Amino acid sequence: DQETDPLWKKCESPDQSTVIDGCGAIIAANTETPQNLATAHSNRGFAYHNTNRNDLALPDFNEAIRLNPNDPAGYEGRGAVEINSGAIDQAAADYNTEIRLAPNASGGYKGRADVDANRGDWPAALADNNKALQIEPTYEEALEGRGGVYGVMLQWDLAIADYTAALKLNPNSEIANLGLGTALAHKGQYAQAIPYLNQVLAQNGGKDALAAGALYNRAVAKLFTGDLQGAVADESAAKQMNPKVPDLPITNTPAQN
Description:
Layout: H1 6-11, H2 16-29, H3 34-50, H4 54-67, H5 72-85, H6 88-101, H7 106-118, H8 122-135, H9 140-152, H10 156-169, H11 174-186, H12 190-203, H13 208-224, H14 228-241
Helix pairs in contact: 2-3, 3-4, 3-5, 4-5, 5-6, 5-7, 6-7, 7-8, 7-9, 8-9, 9-10, 9-11, 10-11, 11-12, 11-13, 12-13, 13-14
């Protein structure tokens, strides 16, 4: 019985390492039905993916799909790994399969929105994020995804609303803090932007893409609030992480005292 079996409790734990151990034991025992084994592989695959071990996640999702081709979870997981590796067309196919199998799978629409964004199809990305949020209004990643789409569309007020909603669900979200700080800066609300960008940098775990963006946007915010020395320091640090970061618009700033 999955509800009382201690291994299944581990396999369905919120803790990723516990999932890997519990599901691994179930898979090794090989006494479950193909459907249950598929669930164990999917659960372990998501745990590997959530801990940035996509090389281990992919075989689990492949095996889950082989064991139970009608279970949408395997396709959702494999799609996430494929997006991560740049296999966008394969990810699109997997998310479309998931949506066909489970029309109310919010994760399928969110995943397909990521495919749309990778392809630069912003109206489609907006529609798919909207669908994910229609199904699951408190879907943090879909709020962040839609906020990003609104940012590309220069609809900063809508982006601010989505990132603010995401931060209510997860105040430590680096993506939402970066997005909100960036959106506020683009609206000219520089002083309000800085605390959100500080938050990204305070907890950034070496994710250079996010850190470089936070540093550059904080440099702009410091520049327009009169802290030229701090702005130049942040710009320099951002360029060390990402040489493609643009130069500060120093000639466009208010006169420095």
